[in-house]
TrEMBL record:
The chain crosses the membrane at residues 12-35. The keyword Lipoprotein does not apply. It comes from Paenibacillus wenxiniae. The keyword Transmembrane applies. Residues 68-278 form the BD-FAE-like domain. Keywords: Hydrolase, Membrane, Transmembrane, Transmembrane helix. SUPFAM superfamilies: alpha/beta-Hydrolases. InterPro entries: AB_hydrolase_fold, BD-FAE-like_dom, GDXG_lipolytic_enzyme. This is Alpha/beta hydrolase. GO terms for molecular function: hydrolase activity.
């Protein structure tokens, strides 16, 4: 009976914190839609002389299993680089169309670009998790490659990127799935994507003080059953490994460009140290930009943003060519 009561408390705390998490990340969607730190310098006068866009190409059976493909006007090259950008939205909202400026800008630089949707956690999909979303992204890549090939754009290298939830999914693909990618992954860039899921780092949600709530929320996010007694053990690490990008970093991981806000309470800033420590430990080339006056929207540090943009262009030139 006591075990059943304990499980019920964990379930109830999970429901409460999932609800709170959804509300907070809904706010993050609004932030990202009303202020995108990457949008200012990415306005492109889009026309046929720049490229073409093909929308809602299916890569699976689920409603959200669609992607948009942007191809440059110049179709004379023997091969092209692909840049995939994954949308923000806290794993509960957002859409590939939110990143249209980014995708058009990348295409104007000569890359094939793709925005990919994935099944979000909502009332219709209560079992969707960060892990299932990452598996859908993985599933989409051969289809993206094949569609580009059909259009006359053979792909031989790729970068993957994203913001917030999309940043986490981009890091997962770059570190966990690069070895099996149908297109060689050369780099990853992202902003404010949670790289780890330890309760002690998620203090803005009070998870450091509430093991039952932490177990409930991270059970939902990981897709695995986590109990309060697992927290702090190897069993816990194994349960969240599938959604924790930093755990997949090794000496062969791709160069990484990352940006985080010191005052971010939506994707807690305390989690960033695990990413940086792992990159240092394995001697992975990376550049990290800390936005000292900003939260999740990164809206208060324009000089740092400009430096990030300069470094992004440098990364694209160095690792992706043109």
């Amino acid at each position: 009976m006591k075990v059943e009561q304990k499980d019920r408390r964990t379930w109830l705390w999970g429901c409460i914190y999932v609800g709170a998490f959804i509300v907070v990340f809904a706010i993050s969607v609004i932030i990202k839609m009303t202020y995108n730190p990457l949008s200012g310098e990415m306005n492109v006068n889009w026309n046929d002389s720049v490229g073409r866009m093909y929308t809602d190409i299916a890569y699976g059976d689920q409603e959200k299993n669609k992607f948009d493909l942007y191809v440059p006007a110049d179709h004379t090259k023997k091969s092209y680089g692909l840049v995939v950008y994954l949308h923000a939205g806290g794993f509960t909202g957002g859409d590939k169309s939110d990143d249209i400026n980014m995708l058009k800008w990348l295409t104007s630089k000569g890359y094939v670009a793709a925005g990919i949707n994935y099944t979000l956690r909502d009332e219709k999909h209560p079992t969707a998790s960060v892990d299932t979303m990452s598996q859908e992204i993985k599933k989409s890549m051969p289809i993206v490659k094949a569609e580009a090939q059909k259009l006359g754009y053979p792909l031989d290298r790729m970068a993957i990127a994203g913001g917030s939830a999309g940043g986490t999914l981009a890091l997962l693909y770059a570190y966990r799935d690069a070895d099996t990618s149908p297109i060689p992954v050369k780099m990853v860039y992202e902003m404010v994507g949670p790289p780890s899921f330890f309760p002690q780092d998620w203090i803005s949600y009070g998870l450091d003080q509430n093991p039952a709530a932490a177990a409930g929320l991270f059970s939902v996010m990981s897709g695995h059953v986590i109990t309060p007694d697992m927290i702090g053990t190897e069993r816990y690490k194994e349960a969240v490994k599938g959604i924790s990008p930093y755990m997949w970093i090794n000496a062969n991981s791709v160069p990484t460009l990352a940006g985080y806000g010191r005052y971010d309470k939506i994707a807690p800033f305390g989690a960033v140290k695990h990413l940086i420590n792992a990159l240092n430990e394995h001697h992975v080339p990376y550049d990290y930009f800390e936005f000292p006056h900003s939260g999740h929207g990164l809206q208060n540090d324009n000089k740092i943003y400009a430096q990030y943009m300069d470094k992004l262009n440098e990364y694209l030139d160095r690792y992706m060519g043109s």
